[in-house]
Each structure stands twice: as C-alpha cells, then as structure tokens.
Automatic annotation (TrEMBL):
Residues in Core domain copies: 1-103
InterPro entries with a match to the protein in the record: ATAP, ATAP_core_dom, Fe-S_cluster_asmbl/transfer, FeS_cluster_insertion_CS, HesB-like_dom_sf
Any single GO BP term: iron-sulfur cluster assembly
The protein, known as: Hypothetical hesB/yadR/yfhF family
Gene source species: Nitrosomonas europaea (strain ATCC 19718 / CIP 103999 / KCTC 2705 / NBRC 14298)
GO CC, one annotated term: cytosol
Amino acid sequence: MAITLTERAARQIRQQLERRGKGVALRLGVKKSGCSGFAYSFDYADEVQEDDQLFESHDAQVVVQRDQLSFIDGSEIDFIQEGLNSSFKFRNPNIDNTCGCGESFSLKT
C-alpha cells in the first residue's frame, strides 16, 4: 500500500504544519458525502496513532487510518493553484466516477 506526494504537495504540508506551530503530518481520510458518495477529508495529525499508517514523501508525512486505506491506496497527491484558488488534487486509481463539481467520487466495485 502506498500514498505518494508531489514536491508541491509536500512543500504545502510542511508550510501548513510550520504555520500551525505543531503537528507531525497531514491526516487524510474519506467520508460519505456529496452526490457521488465519498469525499476526502483533511486534518492535522499531532501524533501517529496505533491504527494509522504513515507515509512519507519529500520530507513530508501523511497519515491514514488503516481501515480507510483501500479507498486511497495508490494515490498521488499534488497541490495546485489556479488563479486565486488552491487545493490538494488526488490522482486516485480507485475512483470510478466523480460528480460534476469534482467534490465527491464513487469507488470501483
């Protein structure tokens, strides 16, 4: 199982944690939401918990609860800026379909 970060995403994670003044990683998750079924969730991880899996790329760390790994295994996370908007962008091989606005997705069965 693997989750990788581009250099831009890793830099953004490091900057956010530095601004916050604490934390060891970005916590990624998946929650039921939106018109397609699932959406990504983001939070700070102040510690790696027993049921977490830790991933590291370009000196930045991401944690995911092990029971959610199947939703995002194999994903590459990038950070993009388009005009005034910026966000993390997933390249997730487990996605079957996304909604029109791009906020939610359904998984391959």
